[in-house]
Amino acid sequence: MSKIKIGFSALLTLIMLSMFAALASAEGNFTPTPSNPAPGINVGTIDNSGQVNQHKTHGNFQNNTNSCANCHSTHNGDDSRLLKFKNAEYDMCLSCHDGTMGFYNVQTASGAGIFSESHESESMHNVSSGIINGKAPGAYLNKDTNELECSSCHNPHGSVNDRLLKENVIGSVPFAYGTVNGVKVPVQNGVKTINLSLSDDPDFAAINASTTNSGLKITKSIGPKDSQDKINYSQFCAACHDDYAASRTAGRPSNAGKTAGNTNHDFLYTHTSNSSSQGRNCAACHYAHGTDITTLMDTAGKTIDDLKKPVAQGGKGWSDAVAKDYMKDVSVGGSSNKKFTNMAVCWSCHQSTHKIDTPVVPGGDYSGKNKIR
């Protein structure tokens, strides 16, 4: 009888261990698929025409969608929008975009930068930290009192932009002025479509090649696609940072007759940030999400990972400590979401066109300009 009890106990133990192992495997080694892009995020497989075709998690919902329940709880929501998380937006978005869903992980480097926890030379758009949109650096006419959230820039239900960027940004105000038929008129910022320069992500070649995913493509982006998109992107940022995109001569005393609302700028000149020319739009110098020691570059466009590579592979063979000390941003104002450490972004562009009197530093490399669009 005791042998039987031991047998049952051993069997139960094995079953429990296998269950825990399965759970651990599911959490630690989860492989996303179109029908289950993240643990617990399930997408239907039959479309409205009866065909096998996975639905998109954001937007393009089928008549039989399950996507609403991925984020909302009908009876037990933790806020007025029935979201499942108490710290609603950020926790909700990070429940997938923290790496548990392998498609777009905002905590790893991408064309948008990074939401980092490294605490070294980091700066970012601190969503869900209580920051008010109208308090953004360079906010001039923007008096928006809403808090900065993921949805300040993105529409979680879908948009015409591949990264769900809004066409009407929270905090949008007219600040700049254009000319229509000889008449000066205000231009509304953050209300235009931004096309991005996208390429298929080779890490998800199998999913991209699938014919049963409603046209879903997992892509990489290097920023705005064409000239007009660069301008639209800058105007998108200027919805909150409106002063930074003002005319470079907006504050000149000789500018008599300026339209009301654009007369109190206290600068004489500003670096152009609303142009399609290389290096003259917000996305040329800054990341949208943020930056840290791992994403910052020097004038050669090198990151700490590049510098740690052997000389034979184009690196310097430096240790991690040396590479980080070299790349650390020591600017008084912080790294300010910049792509390049310190003010190296300026030197990357201007070293070749504005020579200084001293010789070029031996070993200096200013090819980082190729990283600026």
How does this structure look, described?
The protein is an alpha+beta fold. It has one domain. The protein contains 9 helices and 6 strands. A two-stranded antiparallel ribbon has the order 1-6. Strands 2-3 form a two-stranded antiparallel sheet. It starts with a helix and ends in a 23-residue tail after the last helix.
Brief description of this entry?
This protein has 373 residues and is an alpha+beta fold.
Whole-number average pLDDT?
A: 78
Largest sheet: 2 strands, antiparallel
Our Rg estimate from Cα atoms comes to 25 Å
Q: What's the number of extended β-strand segments?
A: 6
The helix fraction, in percent, is 10-25%
Protein name: Doubled CXXCH domain-containing protein
Keywords: Signal
Domain Doubled CXXCH motif: 61-101, 148-168
GO molecular function: oxidoreductase activity
Which keywords apply here?
Doubled CXXCH domain-containing protein; signal; single chain; 6 strands; alpha+beta; Paired_CXXCH_1; Multihaem_cyt_sf; 9 helices; 8% strand; 373 residues; oxidoreductase activity; two-stranded antiparallel ribbon
